[in-house]
Amino acid sequence: MSSLGTDGGGTAHNAAYNTVSGDAVIVGPVLMAQHIEGIPLPPSPPDVPPSQGPMPSRVFVNRTQELADLRDAGRSLAAGPEPGVVLVVGVGGVGKTQLVAQAVRRELHRLFPDGQLHVDLADHRRDGVVDLAAVLGEFLRALKVHKDYVPAGLAERTALFRSVAAGLRLLVKVDDVQHAPEARALVPPRGLLVATGRRVLPSLLMDGAVLIDVAPLDEAAETARATGDEPMLPRIDLVRARAFAGAGSLDRAAAAAGAAADAAAGLKQFAKLDEALELLTALADRAEDRPLRDACEEKLTALRRTMGLRPPAAPTA
After folding, report:
1. How far is the C-alpha of 182 from the C-alpha of 174, rounded, in Å?
2. Fewest 10 Å CB contacts: which of 66, 141, 160, 258?
3. How far apart are CA 279 and CA 276, in angstroms?
């Protein structure tokens, strides 16, 4: 069997037959063969910018002020030479991710023509720690870096991400940010990072991040009632109820869930009625305050009676 070596002068040679010479620098294996009919190569990735993230809903409660604030922040930060950060904060279920999706569809996508990257950090968080190396690996592959060239370590992936994205105007959308370093690691060299989370991160604001506060939809519900947009009320009140429950305000959550159930029953939106009944049941089980628990049970009984529903069967021993 012949062997492959070099003569020290820029020439690689096979002791029996072949040579590879010239001034080129060869990295990796050299294939030596008498006849090469063809080498199959993997197909190139599609030559389109990434467009990741949740799709905007066709039904969206009109958060006029929040959309305007996010649009203005995106415009201002996109015009600057440095990358920007927007922090969208609100309780769970209030609609932060959908707000961002709507803003992207309506305007922000035009400001970042080289693509949109998205990650929900909850999918990568284990025991409270996010695997940022895995997130950056996904981003690099979305930016058409072949998996064989994605390094293993976090530092190397961070450096490669910054190199690959250096000439790109990117929009990076990150959900469930709990700590400032999680967001900082994913800021593109040019462009904008929009992070959603449940609490304000003061150190990000000190870095220059713009804060968008997404409050529960009390005002939206009152607007819908005032304008006669009745079909939207069950959905709005359910969002409010979940937001209040997430914030620990169970009395307000129960009131909003009861309002959602009443509106759904009147409009015969039975799917929304089922959601409201399930939420009220969960609130009754969760309530430690006896009057609140009794109020939830009383509301459930009245709703079931109105709709001709039987109470749930008692558990068997």
Report:
1. 9
2. 141
3. 5
| Model pLDDT for residues 119-150, shown as the tens digit of each residue | 999 999 999 999 999 999 999 999 999 999 99
Whether 185 and 162 have beta carbons less than 8 Å apart is answered as no
Tell me whether strands 19-20 and 4-6 are parallel, antiparallel or unpaired: unpaired
Residue 179 token pair? 């700590």
Nearest Cα neighbor of 303 from 242, 258, 267, 238 is 258
**pLDDT tens string 28-76:** 566 666 666 666 666 666 778 888 988 887 766 657 888 899 999 999 9
Helix, coil or strand: residue 108: helix
Q: Which pLDDT does position 21 carry in this prediction?
A: 63
Q: For residue 115, which of 57, 172, 34 has the smallest C-alpha distance? A: 172
CA angle in degrees (0–180, nearest 5) for 98-188-184 = 80
Query: For residue 143, which of 178, 167, 108 has the smallest C-alpha distance?
Result: 167
Is the confidence at residue 313, as pLDDT, over 90? no
Tokens read off for 224: 């819908």
Residue 221 confidence class, pLDDT cut points 50, 70, 90: low
* pLDDT given at position 16: 47
The SS3 call for residue 151 is coil
Burial of 18 (0-12, 13-18, 19+ CB in 10 A): middle
Q: How far apart are CA 218 and CA 239, in angstroms?
A: 10
Q: Note whether 199 and 89 are within 8 A (CB).
A: yes
Contacts of residue 297, defined as CB under 8 A and 6 or more positions apart, other chains included, come to: 284
